[in-house]
Amino acid sequence: MKTVYTCFCTDVIHDGHIHIIEEAHKYGKVIVGALSDEALIRYNKFPTISLEERIRLYEGIDGVEKVVVQDSMMYDRIIEELHPDYVVHGDNWKTGPESAIRENVLALLSAYGGELIEVGYTYSPAVKKIDQQLKEKLAMPEYRRKRLRQLIEMTPVVKVMEAHSGLTGLIVEKTVVERGGLLDQFDAMWVSSLCDSTAKGKPDIELVDMSSRLRTIDDIMEVTTKPIILDGDTGGLTEHFVYNVRTLERMGVSAVIIEDKTGLKKNSLFGTDVEQTQASIEEFSAKIAAGKAAQLTDDFMIIARIESLILEKGMEDALARAAAFTAAGADGIMIHSRKKDPAEILEFCDRFRETDPKTPIVVVPSSFNVITEEELAEHGVNIVIYANQLTRSAFPAMRQTAEDILKYHRAKEVDERLLPIKDIITLIDEL
Ligand code: SPV
Ligand code: MG
Description:
Layout lengths: L2 E6 L6 H11 L3 E7 L1 H6 L8 H9 L4 E7 L5 H7 L3 E5 L8 H12 L4 E5 L5 H15 L1 H14 L3 E5 L3 H9 L1 E4 L2 E4 L2 E4 L1 H7 L10 H14 L4 E4 L6 H14 L3 E5 L1 E2 L14 E2 L2 H14 L6 E6 L8 H13 L4 E4 L7 H13 L5 E3 L9 H6 L4 E4 L2 H20 L12 H5 L6
Helix pairs in contact: 8-10, 11-12, 12-13, 13-14
This protein binds sulfopyruvate and magnesium ion (MG).
C-alpha cells in the first residue's frame, strides 16, 4: 500500500479539505500533517483552536489513516521521516510566497522518486463563507485581545509594526515575504503616538486626544485581525486611565504601554534636548496598580515603559523602576534608548533577566537599528516594535511626488514609481 501525505493548516474542515482527502485516498493510505502553532503563525493563519484539537479534528475525517505533527512550514523533516510516495496539495500555491514551499516539496520528492499531486482548489461560495467567518472570528475582541499573550508563548520574538490607518493596518496584516526558504510576516500592530499624531499633522505631545486615538484603532480594527498594542503615552491622569483601560479591553486591544513621564510629554527621541519630567516610582506604580485593578479580563496587558536611559538617569534607576513597576502589577517592561549602540539596552535586558526570567521585555529599536530580532531575543527580549518606519518611508515618497509634479506641470514623470491605477482600485478586498 502506498502512502500519501498532505499537510493541513486549518481550524475548520470544509468541502475543499474533504475533496483533497478523497483525491489522496485514491493513491494509498492517507497521512495528514497538522502544522504546529509556531509554523502556522509565520505562514498564513492564527489558530483559534489548539494543536491537540486540530489533530482530533483531522483524525475524525473519513479516509484519514493517521495524523502527525509537521513542525515547520517546509517539508524536509516530515518527508525524511515518512518518505511518502505522494504528497497531495491544493493547486493554489503555485504563485506568491507559498510557491517557495511548493519548490521545497518538489525538490525533496524528486530526490527519491516521490510524486506531487495537485488538486484543483475548491473555492465554492460555501468555502468562501467559511474562510470569511474564520477571519471575522479572529477580528472579534475576545480572540484578538488574547492573541498577544498567546504569541509571547508561541514565538521567540513577537514582531510588531506601526499602523496609523486602515491602509497601514492592511500592510501589516497582509505583508508576507519568503526569504531563505521561509515565509515570514508581522505578528501585531503598534498604534504609535508619534505616527498617529504625525498623520494628523500634530506634534507628539498628547495633543491628539483619546477619542481620536480610539477612532484610529477602530479604523485599523475594521480591516485587520492582528493584535494591537497601543502607545498610551503617559496614560494621563490615573482617574482617566482606569476608564481607558476598560474601553481598550472592550474594543479588543491587547496591550497598552504607558511611559513613566509626567507633565507635558514630548517624544522620547528628543531625549534631553527638551525638558521632560520623569514620574516618581511611587506615582507611576500607583497608576499601573489602578489600571490593573480596573481591568476585567485576564488577557489585557499593561506594560510599563521606562524612560531612565532616555533621560540619562542611569542603569540603576532603570532597573529599580523595572522591579518596582513589575511588583505594582505591570505585565511587561518596555525599555527605551536613543543611542545608536544597543549596549545599554542589552545590559538592561541581561541584568533584568538575572532576577526576573519571565516578565516580557519590549524594545523599540529605532535608533539602535543594527541589532537583529534574533540577537535581541537572545538577551531575553520578547517583543520588538518597529515604531515609525512605515510613516517615515511614505513621507519622502509623497514629498518627492509633490515636488516633481510641481516641477514638470504634469504627472507623467512620476508615474513609473506609482502604484498602478488597476492595483489601487483593487487593493481593498470587496465583500
Ligand atoms: C512612538 O512610536 O510614538 C513611541 C516610540 O512612543 S518613540 O517615538 O521612540 O518614543
Ligand atoms: Mg509615543
